[in-house]
Design a protein that fits this description.
- With 559 residues, this protein is of the alpha/beta class.
- The chain folds into 3 domains: 278 residues, Ribonuclease Z/Hydroxyacylglutathione hydrolase-like (Metallo-beta-lactamase, Chain A), CATH 3.60.15; 153 residues, 3-Layer(aba) Sandwich (Rossmann fold); 89 residues, Ubiquitin-like (UB roll) (Roll).
- It is built from 16 helices and 25 strands.
- It has an 8-stranded mixed β-sheet. A 6-stranded mixed β-sheet has the order 8-9-10-11-12-18.
- A hairpin with an 8-residue loop joins strand 1 and strand 2.
- Helix 6 runs parallel beside helix 7 and helix 14 runs antiparallel to helix 16.
- The longest helix is centred in the C-terminal third of the chain and has 20 residues.
- Bound molecules: zinc ion (2 copies).
- One zinc ion binds next to helix 2.
Length: 559
């Protein structure tokens, strides 16, 4: 008789709360038995069909419901799409947080903005290994990306190793001098990896991405070509290596540096405090003092590389920032590429800058930006080193995920071992198989001002309706005793110009009066019904006259 106890394989679950089938609000959770760890907690910016929404975060319902099981929150790097929702998560969940120095400094900044204090943030370094609960060991591995302190994660679980690439590229000449740790990645591949989850952002770009060092060379040439002009360089505030290169070039070319834009000032301050950004304090000049500095001695480093409406560069391009008036002696460098969807905004800014006589240099005709995400050959390189049994492309829209799956198949992976995921998916693994488990709650929670999740589809629909067709308001005064109408006023916003449409206004009032006179006593008693009837009749009337469909509010005042 065989006494050997049969090993029961409990599944390891990988759940996606965000960042799959979309680029933004990255968040995944791993669960084994009753232990959960969270990888990243990002936000995303609202799309055009979400007017007035400030930001979008993942739906945390599953994690809140399983609060006591959560052993830790692991952050791969400090970009908003990986840490931006942390203040909201930490309101509901208390768990230790792990990340590199700069990542946690940025998280701390966000928490402080939200007046949240007293959280335990644990700093790790590349090569650090931490144990979480009985089921998880997490190793941090250095990778190159457009922010320092970026890591891949090798997570050892009872079922096997799960490898998250995080956002990465392979830069052999990075700023800071340390390329992606391919040696360690290869060693982990040798141990045998159960499942790999890889960045898919640039899968459609063939070959390899440009090194950050090349950007420095291109910027150096711009400094040389514009010796007597003022330089204004727009880039992402989180691209600390880019800012470092600009600071170094400014020193070399004897220019002072003025930072402009709230996040630029903020990140420069945080990064220099922890030694990620190194410069001589004397090189900086306050934006209020730049009038004393000649054009050829100044470089302004600003936010607004995406043409965001409220950003510093956009305001300069519209003459809304009187400390920096753009003119013919300015050379503006957009050291970034447009995030898909932002092209029109940035085009407007570039056109406005040209109108003012400035010279504008951007990615299309100068190497002033390098992507932080590896191109196809870099993604292939890491996939071939890790050699996972199962593969899940992440950090991509459906087309990127599909393309990444095809690339993996072209490298010999079986289609049955690749999964193209969706929000809310729960993938279950034992050491031999991968299967789809029950979906978990997942989706987008909209944040508007202090409200989290109180802006839903109905509010959005109203905002869209108002923004497209305007508002038409009718106020009816009714004497409660006699049931007589004592007043009928109409007003509108964003619908028609009232002064020129007296006829329309008068007729609209007539419509209301007629509706009222047609109704019998019973209908008049129910004011909600009365308001609805008025709304319907007005809608028909206004549409027949204008072919427009404003939002109609009818109000009744008793007197
Ligand atoms: Zn990133
Ligand atoms: Zn990202």
């Amino acid at each position: 008789m065989n006494n050997q106890t049969k090993k029961i394989d409990l599944p390891l679950k990988i759940m996606f709360l965000g960042g799959i089938g979309e680029i933004g609000k990255n968040m995944a959770a791993l669960q084994y038995k009753d232990e959960i760890i969270i990888v990243d907690c990002g936000m995303t910016f609202p799309s055009v069909d979400m007017p007035g929404v400030d930001l979008v975060i993942p739906d945390f319902t599953y994690l809140v419901n399983n609060h006591s099981k959560i052993k830790g929150i692991i952050l791969t790097h400090g970009h908003e799409d990986h840490i931006g929702a942390m203040p909201y998560l930490l309101r509901d969940i208390k768990a230790p947080v792990f990340g590199t120095n700069i990542t946690l400094a940025l998280v701390e900044g966000r928490l402080r903005e939200n007046k949240m204090e007293g959280f335990v943030l644990n700093t790790v370094r590349p090569k650090s290994v931490i144990s979480l609960g009985n089921s998880f060991k997490v190793e941090f591995i250095h990778v190159n990306h457009s922010i320092p302190g970026s890591c891949a994660l090798s997570i050892t679980t009872p079922v096997g190793i799960v490898f998250f690439t995080g956002d990465f590229k392979v830069d052999f000449t990075p700023i800071g001098g340390v390329p992606t740790d391919l040696v360690r990645i290869a060693e982990i591949g040798q141990k045998g990896v159960l499942c790999m989850l890889s960045d898919s952002t640039n899968i459609e770009r063939l070959g390899i991405s440009m090194s950050e060092t090349s950007v420095g060379r291109a910027l150096n040439n711009i400094f040389l070509d514009n010796l007597d002009r003022r330089l204004i360089i727009a880039t992402f505030s989180s691209n600390i290596h880019r800012i470092q290169q600009i600071l170094d070039l400014a020193k070399k070319h004897k220019r002072r540096v003025a930072f402009r834009g709230r996040s630029m000032l903020n990140v420069a301050d945080i990064a220099s405090k922890i030694g990620e950004l190194k410069y001589d304090k004397n090189i900086l000049v306050d934006i209020d003092q730049i009038k004393d500095i000649s054009d050829n001695n100044l470089v302004i480093v600003t936010t607004g590389s995406q043409g965001e409406p409220m950003s510093a560069l956009t305001r300069m391009s519209n003459d809304e920032f009187n400390k920096v008036m753009i003119g013919a002696m300015d050379t503006i460098v957009i050291s970034a590429s447009p995030i898909p969807g932002n092209e029109r905004m940035i085009n407007t800014v570039i056109n406005n800058l040209y109108r003012k006589g400035a010279k504008v240099i951007y990615e299309s005709f100068a190497e002033v930006h390098a992507s932080g995400h590896g191109y196809q050959d870099e993604l292939k390189l890491v996939l071939s080193l890790v050699k996972p049994k199962f593969f899940i492309p992440v950090h991509g829209e459906p087309r990127h995920l599909k393309k990444h799956a095809e690339v993996a198949m072209s490298m010999g992976m079986s289609p049955q071992h690749i999964y193209i995921g969706d929000l809310g998916d729960c993938i279950e693994f034992d050491s031999r198989t991968m299967r789809l488990g029950d979906k978990i709650v997942a989706g987008a929670v909209l944040v508007d001002g202090l409200g989290v999740g109180d802006v839903g589809q109905v509010v959005l629909r109203d905002r869209k309706h108002l923004s497209e067709d305007g508002l038409f308001v009718v106020v009816l005064g009714i004497d409660t005793r006699s049931q007589e109408i004592t007043a009928c006023e109409v007003t509108s916003r964003g619908f028609v110009y009232m002064k020129e449409t007296e006829e329309l206004i008068d007729e609209a009032k007539d419509v209301v009066m007629q509706v009222y006179s047609r109704l019998d006593q019973k209908d008049l008693a129910d004011w909600n019904l009365l308001k609805n009837i008025i709304r319907k009749e007005l809608k028909t009337y206004l549409f027949s006259k204008t072919r427009r469909n404003p939002m109609i509010l009818s109000m009744i005042l008793e007197n």
